[in-house]
Amino acid sequence: MTPETLVIIPAKNEQESVHLVAGAVVSDLGLPVVVVDDASNDETADAARRAGATVLSLRLGLGAWGAMQAGIRYALSRGYKRCVTMDADGQHPVQSLPVVLEPVLRGRADAAIGSCTSRGSPLRQVAWGLFRGIGGLGVGDLTSGFRAYNRRAMELLAGPRATLLDYQDLGVLFLLRGSGLRIVETPIAMACRLSGHSRIFNTWPSVGKYMLHSSILAMSKSVRGSRQSDNAGEDQ
């Protein structure tokens, strides 16, 4: 473990848990933490500061991916070689962070996902199967935000193409894979959130928007892949 790794925690109204997560990373692992406060209207920022984290306070909410991207840009601007992203709600066990980081730290992957495919509800399992079948990503846990990135991946995810994404899930994975970066999954156990609720799966309209967006994205990649295969066949 080196100080060349920054832990990024996007947070919106997570005052009940963010200090526990950030505090454990700082005290147990000795890693620097930046909490990107996504325009919370509670005491999230103060709780994170008291836990020893650097806090970036956004004046306008950017959503989970926008806040995470702000943290990645901060890491790049400070010269960090690697970063780990994790949720503020306590679902990602801090003791598993070195396990998720290890493939990137050892140079075996550009991006590593802390994967827990058993945690999903039946509806989420159906969605994962649908997106895997359409998009052909070959990744088991498509929605885990517990990820490690090296600098090459960070530079890609800080760029304009990544800014067009609404979610980190499929879009980021397609972007990484399409750029030739290596992705691995590391099995971990996840816990129940300590407080609050999902920003995506908290209302049916939010779920519908996510499903529509992800389906279109997956189908666009599927069509593009088919065209590339056809062109390759014609060239032979």
Task: Please characterize this protein's 3D structure.
The protein is α/β, with parallel strands linked by helices and 236 residues long. It has helices at residues 18-29, 44-50, 63-77, 97-105, 122-135, 151-157, 160-163, 170-178, 204-235, and strands at residues 5-11, 33-37, 54-57, 82-85, 111-115, 147-150, 183-187. The protein has a seven-stranded mixed β-sheet with strand order 3-2-1-4-6-5-7, sandwiched between helices. Helix 3 (63-77) crosses helix 6. The chain is globular, with a radius of gyration of 18 Å. The chain starts with a strand and ends with a helix.
Concise account of the structure shown:
This protein has 236 residues and is α/β, with parallel strands linked by helices. The chain is built from 9 helices and 7 strands, in the order βαβαβαβαβαβαααβα.
